[in-house]
Write a structure and sequence with these properties.
By secondary structure, the protein is of the alpha/beta class. The protein has helices at residues 21-35, 54-65, 77-80, 84-96; strands at residues 8-15, 44-48, 69-74, 100-102. Strands 2-1-3-4 form a four-stranded parallel sheet, with helices on both faces.
């Protein structure tokens, strides 16, 4: 797989009790701005707990087609997966695509 040298970020939000959309979006957008990445309309993917990861699957498909993406930003690791082994596998997959997986709480 080729590395992507993008200038934009995709934001991933997973809604569950205690983690609303607005707070996650604001924190992720601030991180994108701090890193110098742009986030445009259509770059925010939101999963509600009952959707079974539909938005995450759409985001992953987009990464295969869109070389302008430098990073995926999620509020924290638990928003991507609550299982550490799944988180590590996703981070490795994105790294293979040349895309950084960024969580503001870890940066």
């Amino acid at each position: 797989m080729t590395a992507q040298n993008g200038t934009r970020a995709l934001v991933y939000i997973r809604v569950s009790s205690g983690f609303g959309v607005d707070g996650q979006r604001e924190r992720c957008l601030r991180e994108a701005m701090r890193a110098g990445w742009r986030v445009e309309a259509g770059d925010v993917y939101i999963d509600v707990g009952t959707e079974g990861g539909r938005a995450w699957r759409a985001l992953r498909r987009r990464l295969l087609d869109d070389q302008s993406v430098a990073a995926v930003i999620a509020q924290d690791q638990t928003r991507v997966s609550q299982q550490r082994d799944v988180w590590l596998a996703i981070a490795a997959e994105l790294r293979d695509l040349g895309v950084e997986l960024r969580t503001p709480s870890a940066s």
